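Appendix C: a fully annotated inverse folding record. The material below is reproduced so that readers can follow the format used throughout the book. The structure is listed first as tokens, followed by the designed sequence.
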């Protein structure tokens, strides 16, 4: 588990270094245009990875087991690393990171319950299903907030956050759910 955390930390540090590198290298000529495009690329790649990992979690709606919890935890830690990159690049208020932390808290709650009960309870299954529903709700919000609605293909990221309040409201509701666990 420590090696996985170290790997995720490396991904985060690498992403941050990439952002800093691309921003500073392009600073001499064509700074504004090139920096924006580079930042858009880094943000776009990070958002793609976030959505891709969430979709993998969604697609693997298997029976609740320790292995499933471990897989979800790993994917959420990867998502957290990419969310850190997006938040660092675009949002002084850190929009995505708190959401992922809340989802990790749901997983910890399920793990703690399993440790105490030596089995998954009906409440654990409800939390698991709730987590999947939260992910289902989040995916279109990411598109709404981080992508240019005028984009022909709908896949062009924007450096201006749209509909930020919808993501804040989503996280408030998720935080409320997490606060009521256990």
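Designed amino acids, in order:
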């Amino acid at each position: 588990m420590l090696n996985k955390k170290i790997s995720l930390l490396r991904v985060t540090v690498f992403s941050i270094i990439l952002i800093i590198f691309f921003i500073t290298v392009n600073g001499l000529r064509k700074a504004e245009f090139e920096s924006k495009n580079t930042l858009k690329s880094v943000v776009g790649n990070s958002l793609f990875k976030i959505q891709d990992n969430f979709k993998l979690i969604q697609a693997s709606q298997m029976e609740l087991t320790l292995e499933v919890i471990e897989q979800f935890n790993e994917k959420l830690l990867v998502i957290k690393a990419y969310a850190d990159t997006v938040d660092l690049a675009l949002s002084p208020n850190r929009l995505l990171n708190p959401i992922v932390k809340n989802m990790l808290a749901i997983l910890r709650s399920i793990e703690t319950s399993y440790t105490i009960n030596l089995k998954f309870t009906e409440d654990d299954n409800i939390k698991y299903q709730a987590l999947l529903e939260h992910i289902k709700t989040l995916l279109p919000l990411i598109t709404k907030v981080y992508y240019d609605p005028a984009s022909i293909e709908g896949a062009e990221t924007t450096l201006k956050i749209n509909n930020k309040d919808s993501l804040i409201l989503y996280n408030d509701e998720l935080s409320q759910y997490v606060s009521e666990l256990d």
